[in-house]
Specification:
This protein has twelve helices and 16 strands. With about 350 residues, the chain is of the alpha/beta class. It has an eleven-stranded mixed beta sheet with strand order 1-8-2-3-7-4-6-5-9-10-11, with helices on both faces. A five-stranded parallel beta sheet has the order 14-13-15-12-16. Helix 10 links the parallel strand 13 and strand 14. It starts with a strand and ends with a strand. It binds adenosine monophosphate (AMP) and magnesium ion.
Length: about 350
Amino acid sequence: MDTKRIHVNESYYKEEVFKLGKILREGGLVAFPTETVYGLGGNALDADAAKKIYAAKGRPSDNPLIVHVSGRDEVEKYVEHVGSIENKLMEKFWPGPLTIVFPKKDIIPKETSGGGLDTVALRCPQNAATRALIKAAGVPLAGPSANISGRPSPTTADDVLHDMNGRISAVVDDGPCNIGLESTIIGVENGEIVVYRPGGITLEMLQEIGPARMDSNLIVDTGHPKAPGMKYRHYAPKAPLTVYTGDRDSAAAKILEKVHEGDVSKIGFFVSEETAKMLPEDAICYIWGKREDKESFAHNLFTGLLYFNEQPVEQIYGEGTDQAGIGRAIMNRLKKASGGHIVVEEKET
Ligand code: AMP
Ligand code: MG
């Protein structure tokens, strides 16, 4: 199968979207853009389509799929009950990077919800072309990130084709994703918003709606968080990654020391602009943005990790950020990408 690239260009896309919708409705796979990362779309009501998604990604089938809807009005078709907090959250953050876990109706097959779960995770993406695609399909779309399981998530159509060429019918290309990190996943437990996966909608933003906290399993890292996918090794670049964080100057100093510790031509540096300026000119370096600019860090995180896969590096040293706002989601992904190799530096006295 040749994977077609369909550019989102109004006149052209308007015709294509119906063909793509038909492919999806009939069980085929089409990757789509969202504000977070590219999704690998398949008919969420079709158990065989779900199986195809797991096969294309090489993903363990106990790891449930997020189901994408084109609007708030579709939710009751797929879920048993919508509470008042969930309603407020949808009103405030949809369309947007917030995935909400609901008790599911039987119309969602168990294959879509990872085998054993009686819940379904729903999200309504911002991308207009993708919402048009869901409407054209006439069914909700299961859409995990469109990468081979374990690798960094794709934030461009090129990233998607790198992993999925020949495995899916088409990719809808709408340029790079804005946020670059996957959606925040939450559930409401006893009137409280619980974050199962941190993302673009931050804990601080959720707390404006009502009481909200991180899932305790995410904090103590027991390996069994409520979003089952979070227990798997994820986002890993080919070369091992170590991330320095904590006091900024001390973390930068630690990274700069690495220049003298080994063969610098085999080291990748994933750092802020400020730190990059202090590195030798020929160092293999990917700048995630200015130190204060966490949005830029989130946007460039997966692109940066994928960049090093194309470089002759044997070790990557990264500079982290603090936990405020989207920093929590960034550090969550870096922790997984580095296999837990996060070094917290203290301020030098
Ligand atoms: P990805 O498909 O790579 O964006 O990852 C989707 C994430 O959503 C995984 O971590 C899943 O475990 C999680 N997820 C999907 N459905 C549910 C659900 N019903 N309850 C909890 N987490 C879910
Ligand atoms: Mg993923």
